[in-house]
Each structure stands twice: as structure tokens, then as C-alpha cells.
Amino acid sequence: MNNNILALPGYRMCEYLLVLHPHEELRNKIMNTKKDFASKFESPSAEKGAPHITLATFSQLQMMEDRILNRLKMIAMAMPAFKVELKDFGSFPSHTIYISVASQAPIQMLVKSLKAAQSLIKTKEHKPYFNDNPHITVARKLLPWQYEKGWLEYSQKHFTGRFIASDMLLLRRPEGVKSYHVVQKFEFMNMPVVTTQGKLFA
């Protein structure tokens, strides 16, 4: 594939992010936590990015988007809405501090459904990432001192919150672009969806 073809809109490689998003009141509460961390531990990047739970990330040519949207719509239609419980903090030593998700089972079930569609979203160069440990990031890419001091404090802190996940959002960022934009919202409908497993997008 030559560079002239790659310059055409449909052949542009894009990064995609599939997420669950809390309601506005809870988003504001989480943003206050992120801002507090940013000012205490000199981590301005903690203030960036809307709070969300990542379900999957992947890269794919933009020309594949319609097929991906159709598949994600089918997966969402079969999924019932569910309650997400947030409780306290966790960490990935030695670089990330996050808000823990207490109710992981329904999210992991959704991620399992997404994994079944991965033939559509993986490429030779890019393998999709599926999040088996749902959480909401407070701060990431921390320096050792930021992590150590931050975790010393946040391991003792408490946080509670809950929201009903009634849909998921797909966001897109074309290669070379800094910010993500929402492509589509997929409502969870709890409807029986009949497909031939593996043959829908063979």
C-alpha cells in the first residue's frame, strides 16, 4: 500500500477508545479528586481527560468504521443496563493510582462479548487491548516519588460513587491528532440478538 493511498480519508489509521462514562455529578466528584491529586503531587496531567472506565482500545483503518459500529450496536443491544459501584482507591505499582470498581462482574461480561468481535478490530500491526481490570484513573505515568507519596495517602482515603451504565461510548482519534472525539453512543437494550457466531464479519 503506497503513501498516496494512505493519504486518502478511508485509509487513515485511527485509534479508538470504548468506554463507560459516569453521570455528570459523579464525573465532577471524580474530577475534583483528580484536581486535588494534581495540585498535591505536581501532576498536571491528572487533571486532563474526562473520567471513564475503559473497556477496550484498538487501532483500525477508518474505512472499517461502519462495520465496527454495526457490530458494537449488536453487542450493546444484547446487554442489559447495570449498576457500577465505585469504592476507594487502587494502584498499579509504580506508576498509576485509580478509583476501584467494586462491581466488576457485569463489566467483565461486556468485555468478554467485545473480545468475541476482535477479528474485526485487530490488524497485523496493532493488537486490541481489552480491560479485564475495570477502574477509573486518577493519575498515571507518575514519577516514583509521586507514586510513593500519592499511594501512601490514597491507600488510606475513601471514595464511594455509583452510576447506572445504560450505554457505552466509542471515541476516535485519527493518527497524529491529540484529542478523542465521540463517534457514537450504543444503548444497552437487553434484547435477544441472534447471530451466527464468528460468521457475522468473517
TrEMBL record:
<dbReference type="InterPro" id="IPR009097">
    <property type="entry name" value="Cyclic_Pdiesterase"/>
</dbReference>
<dbReference type="InterPro" id="IPR050580">
    <property type="entry name" value="2H_phosphoesterase_YjcG-like"/>
</dbReference>
<dbReference type="Pfam" id="PF13563">
    <property type="entry name" value="2_5_RNA_ligase2"/>
</dbReference>
<protein>
    <recommendedName>
        <fullName>2'-5' RNA ligase</fullName>
    </recommendedName>
</protein>
